[in-house]
Amino acid sequence: MTVQTYTVEGMTCGHCAAAVSREVGAIPGVVEARVDVSAKTLEIDTTTAVGDDRVGAAVAEAGYTLVGRA
Fold this sequence. Notes:
Blueprint: E1 2-9, H1 14-25, E2 30-36, E3 41-46, H2 52-62, E4 65-69
Antiparallel strand pairs: 1-3, 1-4, 2-3
Helix pairs in contact: 1-2
């Protein structure tokens, strides 16, 4: 399993975290998505390679901005 950590901007509450977790968690290969709103981070556990562009698209679908890897 691989762990990838990203910085996400625009999240302010638990609802924000849930939206990002839901969208990113739906990506094939993502086992778990954890969001820390106060640290502005997204950490995902994957079983296969998941591209940063795919993660960014899922974060954008939730309404937030993926800044890059943390």
